[in-house]
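ok new one. same drill as before - structure tokens go in, u give me an amino acid for every spot. 325 of them this time. try not to just spam alanines like last time pls lmao
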């Protein structure tokens, strides 16, 4: 039932141990469509209800004024909605890439949420927050992750020592740092640019903050690790200090996905790759001969790959799943 309230003094105490507060319509809709049911739903205008799937009878629905909803959130809520979900989550059953990301004192919630989102998109094993990192379930992290918390295992307040104790022997550790930090890293650890690094075995990626980098305590602990340990960096051409930690982590996550995963493209995707290679070869050949390369010159070759569409032809739309085996 919908309860309309005019109480200007209404306040809601957030139980941060059990609930997740989502303040974005798309994220709420995405979670509801995969089966998550909000325990509470707050909204300001009736049209908000029309933009979301039907609410469960078990959901407490409350209509508020815009001012009341603003007082319940820590942002200017321009979407007129807030939903409360249980943190307990049934993760989607999927094959996961053997990559664990451990965040060393990442205090910026926006960066933390972006890393969770990237890791979920690549189907990593988990994202683990150190005791000194920000709260996984704080509103800012939830907003930045766009609901990815419910797609990947996440853990709070786990030390690197705890994580390393649970790793099998065949795992390696990659320390994501700036190139400058790699040069000054203690222990004479090898350093490699990300694109030259072999990321084809199970990996624990340690990510430090942009200002502090990977802490000395962590570096001392790494010295006792029996497996391979490598500093890894992203080369930067212009004299920037570093990339945003969320961006840098995403680059490394998807570099491992490219190397480790056997991504099976659809037949159309494979044709696009072949067509791209033909175009590149044609342009190189034309340049070597000192002649211009026109798109029209490629048509005969491309038509061998992409025959002209005939009425009644059915398009291939099914994609084969990603296989990490």
């Amino acid at each position: 039932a919908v309860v309309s309230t005019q109480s200007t003094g209404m306040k809601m105490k957030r139980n941060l141990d059990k609930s997740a507060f989502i303040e974005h319509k798309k994220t709420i809709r995405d979670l509801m469509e995969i089966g998550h049911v909000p325990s509470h739903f707050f909204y300001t205008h009736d049209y908000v209800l029309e933009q979301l799937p039907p609410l469960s009878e078990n959901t407490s629905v409350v209509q508020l004024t815009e001012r009341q909803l603003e007082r319940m959130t820590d942002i200017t809520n321009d979407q007129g909605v807030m939903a409360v979900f249980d943190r307990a989550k049934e993760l989607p059953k999927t094959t996961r890439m053997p990559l664990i990301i451990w965040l060393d004192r990442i205090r910026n919630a926006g960066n933390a949420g972006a890393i969770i989102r990237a890791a979920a998109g690549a189907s990593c094993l988990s994202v683990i927050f150190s005791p000194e990192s920000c709260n996984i379930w704080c509103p800012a992290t939830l907003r930045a992750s766009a609901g990815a918390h419910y797609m990947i295992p996440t853990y709070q307040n786990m030390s690197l020592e705890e994580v390393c104790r649970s790793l099998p022997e065949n795992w390696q550790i990659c320390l994501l740092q700036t190139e400058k930090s790699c040069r000054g890293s203690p222990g004479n650890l090898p350093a490699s640019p990300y694109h030259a690094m072999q990321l084809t075995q199970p990996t624990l990626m340690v990510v430090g903050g942009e200002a502090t980098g990977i802490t000395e305590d962590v570096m001392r602990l790494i010295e006792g690790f029996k497996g391979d340990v490598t500093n890894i960096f992203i080369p930067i051409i212009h004299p920037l200090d570093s990339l945003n930690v969320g961006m840098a982590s995403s680059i490394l996550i998807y570099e491992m996905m490219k190397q480790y995963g056997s991504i099976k493209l659809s037949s159309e995707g494979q044709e696009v790759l072949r067509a791209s290679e033909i175009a590149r070869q044609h342009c190189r050949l034309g340049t070597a001969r000192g002649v211009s390369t026109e798109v029209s010159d490629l048509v005969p070759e491309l038509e061998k790959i992409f025959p002209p569409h005939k009425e009644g032809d059915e398009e291939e739309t099914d994609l084969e799943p990603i296989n990490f085996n």
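Residues 1-16, 262-269, 286-293, 313-325 have pLDDT under 50 and may be disordered. and btw The chain is about 35% helix and 15% strand.
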